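Ops channel
N.P.: pipeline sanity check, posting one input/output pair.
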């Protein structure tokens, strides 16, 4: 008795899953390199070797290194958002999770920012990161911000975005040599000062 042929739909689904897995493996290899090296030091040959594929496969899937960078943004964004997950109204947890994120991604992000003027493709990615950081701050501090007038809320959010920015982390951790606990403490005090100031202004 002849075996029944495997449905074509199943074959197409299997191929699609395999292609998706390959694409994700390439992205993961690229991000692993990005965490350790400058963007302009990373080559498609290195990424392909790490991912266990050919350079042609990387090019066919992403078109080149700039396309690979753009393709990696959703994965990197999801990882950062997961790391920054916080308990509602828990300032300590918000700052602790922010520190965990920056301890992993702070130096790579600073390297990308340093190269931004030389690589136009980086601006699109970094602008997305800036908007995501502002969205995160608006959500993390939604409680105290919600009671402010629109203009005061905007100015308070501006201040919160600045004190929780990667540049603030870099100044404290790298330039001043503060440890994680001291950095978290300074950022927490700045956040509390901002919230107290705008809360007081709102009552006047």
């Amino acid at each position: 008795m002849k075996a029944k042929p495997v449905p074509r739909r199943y074959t197409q689904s299997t191929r699609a899953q395999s292609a998706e897995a390959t694409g994700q493996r390439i992205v993961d290899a690229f991000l692993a390199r990005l965490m350790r090296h400058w963007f302009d030091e990373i080559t498609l040959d290195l990424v392909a070797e790490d991912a266990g594929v050919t350079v042609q496969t990387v090019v066919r899937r992403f078109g080149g290194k700039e396309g690979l960078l753009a393709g990696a943004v959703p994965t990197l964004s999801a990882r950062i958002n997961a790391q920054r997950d916080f308990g509602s109204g828990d300032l300590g947890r918000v700052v602790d999770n922010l520190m965990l994120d920056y301890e992993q991604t702070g130096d790579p992000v600073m390297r990308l920012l340093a190269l931004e003027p030389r690589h136009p493709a980086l601006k699109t990615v970094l602008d997305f990161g800036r908007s995501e950081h502002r969205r995160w701050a608006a959500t993390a501090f939604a409680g105290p911000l919600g009671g402010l007038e629109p203009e005061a809320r905007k100015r308070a959010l501006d201040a919160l975005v600045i004190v929780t920015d990667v540049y603030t982390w870099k100044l404290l951790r790298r330039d001043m040599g503060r440890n994680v606990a001291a950095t978290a403490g300074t950022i927490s005090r700045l956040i509390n000062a901002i919230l107290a100031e705008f809360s007081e202004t709102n009552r006047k």
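N.P.: looks fine end to end. The chain is about 80% helix and 0% strand.
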